[in-house]
Design a protein that fits this description.
Length: 239
């Protein structure tokens, strides 16, 4: 690359909107210090799940030595812990401990795929502490493809604390083959009543959008010219 060309690339004004050559609905927008990675495709029918058109957002910086831009998503998007609300109840005749999980993804599953568990986008694992190590170990290593989970009763009789991990099943939720959606785990919940055996768990922030948002930490975009960028194998041309 000649020195004049290199100088022009380093002098390029990055701010603006760049459209992916392969898919015109995929766009990179740069302001003075922020970027937005967007999909503004307009569905002609109801999409399989509701999601924002922003696939990722955060801040960007230019590499000082090479013709590259580095992207960093909002630190909140990197959070691996998600909030939960729990209602405890107890039934004297219950022969199991029950975890009933609700969240926006479950609501959409019921709306569009009721009765079709193969269409699930997530499965759950539960890390549980009861004082019965054998019981805990069995529960902790089980995958639950349902939001209504029963786990029997430990020798100690009750649950002390637990947390739920949400694991994506379908890589359609990811925007790259090499960047599948990541699992997230709820905050740990300490049981208030040791006799509780029914736990209604609400995870209000858990959406397909939450799981599918790209989490970038220094992702490189190559500056090809004053009009074009290359990122993840795709060319983006400035509008």
């Amino acid at each position: 690359m000649g020195s004049c060309t290199t100088a022009k690339i380093f002098a390029q004004k990055i701010e603006g909107t760049y459209v992916q050559d392969d898919m015109s609905n995929i766009k990179l927008r740069f302001s003075e210090d922020l970027f937005f990675f967007e999909d503004d495709f307009e569905y002609t029918h109801q999409p399989p799940y509701n999601c924002s058109d922003t696939l990722a957002f955060g801040y960007w910086e230019r590499d000082d030595k090479y013709p590259f831009i580095k992207l960093y998503t909002n630190p909140l998007q990197h959070a691996s812990l998600i909030n939960l609300n729990v209602k405890e109840a107890k039934r004297s005749d219950a022969d199991s401990i029950y975890f009933i999980i609700s969240n926006p993804m479950e609501e959409e599953h019921i709306q569009y795929n009721r009765g079709n568990e193969k269409a699930r986008k997530v499965y759950y694992t539960i890390y549980i502490e009861t004082g019965d190590s054998r019981f805990d170990s069995k529960v902790n290593f089980t995958k639950y493809y349902t939001n209504n989970i029963s786990v029997g009763v430990p020798k100690t009789g009750g649950v002390k604390k637990f947390e739920v991990t949400i694991n994506p099943i379908d890589c359609v939720l990811g925007w790259r083959e090499n960047m599948s959606p990541k699992f997230v785990t709820t905050m740990q919940y300490e049981v208030k009543d040791p006799k509780s055996n029914i736990f209604e768990i609400e995870i209000p922030e858990l959406t397909a959008c939450y799981l599918s948002s790209l989490r970038l930490n220094g992702d490189f975009i190559k500056i090809l010219s004053n009009k074009q960028l290359e990122w993840d194998g795709h060319i983006y041309t400035k509008e």
